[in-house]
Amino acid sequence: MRVLLVDHDASTRHLYRQILHDKPGIEVIGEAASGLEAIHLARQLQPDVVLIEVGMPNKDGLQATAMIHTLDPTICVIGLADRGNHEQAEAMRDVGAMDYVMKDAPVEDLLAIMHGCSALLREQQRSDAAA
After folding, report:
1. Could you tell me the residue range of the domain that residue 109 belongs to?
2. How many Cα neighbours within 13 Å face the side chain of 42?
């Protein structure tokens, strides 16, 4: 699973890179610090999964998610929301994110969401190919 990390804070991106580094089947292929950069890299790198912060400068996570979903609906976008901001996280689904996770959630929850999202997209692709 090829992953693009998107968060305005470099230390947060570094933390997620460290968390995902040794997980089998996961490769972090890029990082972005803004929504605009995320859109550009998603188009260029074609990741399987985009982990994207909800609130960011230069197009927030909502705007970037909508654009990424429009450009390529096969990319699994997962919103990263700050603690206690469930309304904003729910809004991510409304613009095309497959799911969201609170930034302080256990690593196992994040991995389960990533694998579930990836499996769902593979199943959709199989169904589309069979049709």
Report:
1. 2-130
2. 28
